[in-house]
Amino acid sequence: MSQGIYLDNNATTRVDPEVLQEMLPLFTEHFGNASSMHGFGAAVGGKIEWARKQVQALLGAAHDSEIVFTSGGTESDNTAILSALEAYPKKREIVTSVVEHPGVLALCEYLEKKRSYKVHRIPVDGKGNLDMEAYRAALSDQVAIVSIMWANNETGTIFPVEELARMAKEVGALFHTDAVQSVGKIPVKLADSAIDMLSLSGHKLHAPKGIGALYVKRGLRYRPMLRGGHQERSRRAGTENAPGIVGLGAAAQLALVHMGDENTRVKALRDKLEQAILAAVPSCFVTGNPDNRLPNTCNIAFEYIEGEAILLLLNEAGIAASSGSACTSGSLEPSHVMRAMGVPYTAAHGATRFSLSRETTEEEIDRVIAVVPGIIAKLRSLSPYWQQEAGKPKEFAPVYS
Amino acid sequence: MWNYTDKVKEHFFNPKNSGVLDSANAVGEVGSITCGDALRLMLKVDSDTQIILDAKFQTFGCGSAIASSSALTEMIIGKTVDEALTLTNRDIAEYLGGLPPEKMHCSVMGAEALRAAIANYKGEAWEDDHEEGELVCKCFGIDAAMIERAVSVNGLTTLEEVTHYTKAGGSCQTCHEKIEEVLEEVLAKTGALTPAKKHTPGTVGLDAIKPLEPKAEPAAAPKLTNVQRMQAIMSAIEEMRPQIQRDGGDVELVDIDGKDIYVRLSGACSGCSQSAGTMMGVQMKLVEKLGEFVRVKPASLMPAHAG
Predict the structure, then answer these.
(1) Does A119 touch chain B (CB under 8 A)?
(2) A17-255 classified as CATH 3.40.47.10
(3) Cα–Cα distance between B159 and B180 in angstroms, integer?
(4) What ipTM score was computed for the predicted complex, to two decimals?
(5) Does the beta-carbon distance from B40 to A326 stay under 8 Å?
(6) What fold characterizes domain A5-9+260-385?
(7) Among A33, A63, A378, B283, which has the highest number of CB atoms less than 10 A from its own CB?
(8) Size of interface A-B (CB pairs under 8 A)
(9) B125 shares a domain with B247
(10) Per-residue confidence at A377, pLDDT binned at 50, 70, 90?
(11) How many folded domains does chain B comprise?
């Protein structure tokens, strides 16, 4: 369908054509409001409940009523944290990690500044693994909620959420995980899990943008963020985004079907890409924990060059990737994830993420492997930090630095 | 995705004069890998004619940093050293058909490297700048002298613009007050200076302002009496009201406390997501009218007075 090679699936994915097919009738014949007392509404209500069962199945949840549809990952994250704080007003502490998505980090910063909550941000080591000692030390009966991501969006590094959730339970804290990157890529079974709440986002798993879900374990004290109608059992007011919900249901069904492919063929393609680049390009390395990460993600830091320039040249070659560099985001600092892992600045600016999907083909990967070394060499030939002839870095210390 | 001009793309995808100039007799190096961009500019200057015979660059940085370096070398080859010295970052940005505001610092880096290289050629110690000018932004190593140049050459009036042009203040933000002081000083010195007109997308920062004549003493701003100043502020706000009222809002002057001017936005303005932009507009208008740096703040931030 597209001529380009799309390796930015952690940013967003293409809507699967089968998902789109499921959604289309919701715009035309099944346009009713699920709350209405007539046949138009009833048809839609049935579709929504079908979708809820599909998401339940993908998450391995015990009850379909544990699924609350939202507008996406950020709304789910905000709802989960604010709900816990409101349900346990006497507890004034929050535990999270330094590498969370802004959907969690920015909210925590706000709660710290404006509502005087104490926020514990658990650091990570050089490979992006959570500091378990610091985590243990931060837990206490003062903690209302722990919110730690399942897998990191930039490196794919997976956190031991089940163990973290059990530890949170021991001190009576709720445990929420932002699983936006992991749902659909690795198996999940929440029925026998200590995880209380989980956020997911449709557009990361071939459903459209603007739809997501929050898993809320049955029996959990919960306070809605949006008040209004009785939709979603009053846990999320507002007329349901029926086409989006049905799309998410269809995408969840497909994700289960393709889970095996994701963890074998896609993983093998990722490994092939990574090994070929590491072999062909000097002075680069994989960031995050290569032994424990999502099967589709690889993040390579190219030293002595800058990420935006890499992306522009990749784009010129028809390849879409993403970067933790400062310049691509409009901020002036490299990504908080790279800095948290202590990746040196010489490399953090050149960190480049390739994220595959089940649509990625071997021909595409071969093409990327053929193109990347030339791009890196071209930029290094422009860099004052690189000695072209020797093929290695050199000293360069300008007067103001 | 940045909206780069074709000229920027041309200089990024096919940079001119990149690489090492073995015969260089002037080298300027600025930036650092920590900051995310760095540039080494090498010149070959004819010692008899003072003409720059050749120039090459090596750049670590984003697309616009590489394009700015490439453009710079094209602009200075064939010029005498003194002619080259009159080039400013605006000239580089203009040559490239404009840069996104967040990327203007790339053109500043080019201009700074040129100054460093010529200082090196003339045997002057470039580090001097650091001793005269205080290091304002420690994160990006930006001193007061560089901020002053960026402010006066580009007619900057706000902290945000200074960050876009120099990076100063873009990281830990602890130097924001110092940057405002520098901004204030420059605006006070060049009281007659009209701030750049509102930037329109695509032609960012490329308005009519000419670079200041080197060494020309800026005309001192006429000193207003307190009453004159207050009247100037009141009439500037009156002038702005019809425009704001057209959008269903209003603005009212509440108090003047030295550099702090408190106003109240009402009607459609209160709670409007654009209200910060409106405040910024009022501030720019006042800075322009008064020829001095002032801060416009919402009346809700007024310090509470006893009794």
Answers:
(1) no
(2) no
(3) 6
(4) 0.83
(5) no
(6) Aspartate Aminotransferase, domain 1 (3.90.1150)
(7) B283
(8) 107
(9) no
(10) very high
(11) 2
